[in-house]
Structures are given as C-alpha cells and as structure tokens.
Amino acid sequence: MRALQWCLRKQCFQHRGDLGESIRISRDTAADLRWWAVEGNLSQGKPFSQPTPVATVVTDASTLGWGAHLEDLEIKGRWSPVEQRFHINLLERQAIRLALKAFLPSLRGQSGQILTDNMTVMWYINKQGGVGSYLLCREALRLWSWARDHRLCVVANQTIWPGS
C-alpha cells in the first residue's frame, strides 16, 4: 500500500487536490492494487500483538560510525565519507540493516526486538513505512521483505542511552 500512498500524495500535489483529474500509476502502485484483488490476502488479518521477542539487537549510529550487539555478539563499523553526509535517520536505519544481516545466523526463524534511540526509524519499521520520507519508507519496506525472506519477525522499540 505504500506505493499507492506515495503515488496519491504526489498526484494530489500535482493536481492541487482536483479529484476529477485522472492519475497515472507506476508498476509498483499497480502491484499494490493487484494484491488487494487476491481474496486470500483480504482474510489474512494482522495479529493483535507481536510475538514475544526471543532476541534483542541493540543498535546505535552517529555520523562517524555505528555499532550493535546481540547478547555477547558485537559488531561495529565506520561510515564512508559519502555516508557520513547522510541524514542521521538513514544512518540509524542502515545500522539496523547491517546488524540484522550480521546476526542473521542467530536470529533466523525467530522473533527479534530492535532497540534504537531513533524514534523516527522505530516508527517506520513498526508501521512498515510511511509517507513523510520516501527514503525511509523504501528502506523499511526492504527490511520487511528481507525479514520475511529469512523467517524473521522484527519489532522496534526505543532505548534511551544514559545522558541522551
């Protein structure tokens, strides 16, 4: 549905809210609409609550680098000069992606909790995207697709670091 939301958002601005105007849709938007035509998709529903996480991945990022840990496993890295210019929300999201990829052997097939101090990234992950930032939406959708492919159920929660 996010592709449809982004398409409608863009078209609304272009047509200044004129509901009589026809709109063009992208292939991604058409795919989103076709999903709704499959009867089985409509009866899937969504659980009222997430499964209890059995693993917790703690992540953090700055404009210089990132780090994460899962129990006694730890990983960290530095951003390239190009990446250092990215918005902190994208860096925090990238840190989560890198951590989950590194810890996948310990996480596969489980329910995992991501602890991040970035509320925006937490929201985009839990809502499977959003319409405020196209880049964060795209990255959140990629995360969900990747997690599904690796049988990983993820939920993001906030962590507060001492002194923040």
Automatic annotation (TrEMBL):
Signal peptide: none annotated. SUPFAM superfamilies: DNA/RNA polymerases (SSF56672). CDD domains: RNase_HI_RT_DIRS1 (cd09275). This is Reverse transcriptase RNase H-like domain-containing protein. It comes from Pleurodeles waltl.
